[in-house]
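DEPOSITED CHAIN:
***
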Amino acid sequence: PDVSGWGHVGKVAAAAAAAALGDEIPAACNSMNNLNEPRQNWNILPNHRDGEGGGSRWNYALLVPLLGLAAFRWIWSRESQKEIERERSACKNKIQATERKLKLKYEDEIIQNRRSLARCEVEQEKLKTKVQSYHEALSAQSRHLVEERRQLEQERKVLEEKKHTVQYSGAAAALYQDLMEKEGLWETQARALIKTYENSLVNRQNLFCSYFIPRQERLDLERTMLSQAAANPIAQELGMESGLRYIFDHETHCASVQNNDHRKNGRLLWIYISYWEIRAELQKFKKVGKALSVKPVN
């Protein structure tokens, strides 16, 4: 068809339609030519512009819808591409904004976690130093108790020798036996007191190692034991109050969680109990020796 008067848009639309359709127009036109019924003005004639054809009504019957379809497709494709680009740009901006937001959020959390980790490390070092100092103090006290026990054993041997000497000295032997019986009663009372405190210490250590019993119950028991030791004359002679305070401050040993024997808890308390027993026996001999040195033997 003659597109000289269609303008630029028409030419572009015609070119697009021709490119999109190819050889479809001649095929469609040929299908319209019915040679069995060659009636006038029904078929498309090729030489209509020379005055020989009579198919003017069919010349643009298919061309105009096809050109319109091609133009719609081209316009729709351009608009769709623009819409896709706009949505892609919006999604990209949204993703970038979300990434920046998450980056700021998690960077702040990472900084906070690092600060918390640094504080925990500092606290761990402090606790480690504190535990080390307790361990050194406990070791020093244990060595001191062992040395004192050794000295007490030596003193007891000396007193045993004196006892044998006195036993064979007549009237002094009778006096010695009387004093031994008297101070033996004191030793029996002292050992009973030590046994009482042993049971209390075992109970206290069980409260210390328990995860379920309130801490206040253990503190009440410790205060009761200290007040009784301060008021008891035998406990004063044995120096039990200072020993109890040291045990309460430094005794932290607990057996395994599956342990059912409460006497397996603690280490320092058993050293002090042995120390008090030896000291009670030593005090008995010291009292006997002191009484023999004061009373004259006839």
Helices lie at 7-21, 24-32, 63-167, 171-209, 215-231, 233-238, 240-250, 268-294.
